[in-house]
Amino acid sequence: TPNSKKSEKAHIHITGMTCTTCAATIEKGLAATLGVEQANVNFASEKASIEYDPTKVSLAKIKNTISQLGYGTATKKSIFPVNGMTCASCVARVEQALSSVPGVISANVNLASEKATVDYVGGTEIADLRRAVKEAGYELGSEAETLEDVTTAAKREIRNIRNRFILAAALASAIMTLMWTPFFIGKPYLLWALATPVQFWAGWRFYRGAWGALRHRTADMNTLIAVGTSAAYFYSVVAILFPSLFATG
What we know:
Its main location: membrane. By secondary structure, the protein is of the alpha+beta class.
């Protein structure tokens, strides 16, 4: 069919999934994106296999959709030298040539440094990038520098989660210790101050995921965590600010 001839496939590594419902949420969000013909997300391999029409949707848009759902993407970003450019029009032609290669998310070319920064998904052939640039009348050199690859992106995600966990664990330990101390003036407000960064900074990824799911009229584990912890947090805030509401006798 005409559509099948125009369609392209991309395999994107996704970060931030915690359950199979997360995978289903991403599939639903991608399927609702104009131009995406088919999307399959594998929770075990953390990869999304997407078939799309490049005339209707770009990989950059697909990547942004995944981000809006509350998840991350691990792609490769590299710098290549470009020979033969003489003006701003050359820059535009090289960027257009690189962007036309299946698997390329974005391409930015700097005339002064004669270098191209390309963001692309795994499986994209460097030979295809060189061929596209050559057909445009220029020459793409060997990869000069790797700014990021799938491994470093995944490690960055793990490092971010670890740092948030460490802070949350430290503050939670302080809160539990204070719970065993005698009451003193300002104690409820101190506990409130310690709990707030745990709820909203350490737990931000759950709010982001829950909001993404809500926008696509679904729910997942992020929704459960965000709703449950928010109920406990705001109940406690009301108890601190309006203790008379909970007075007995």
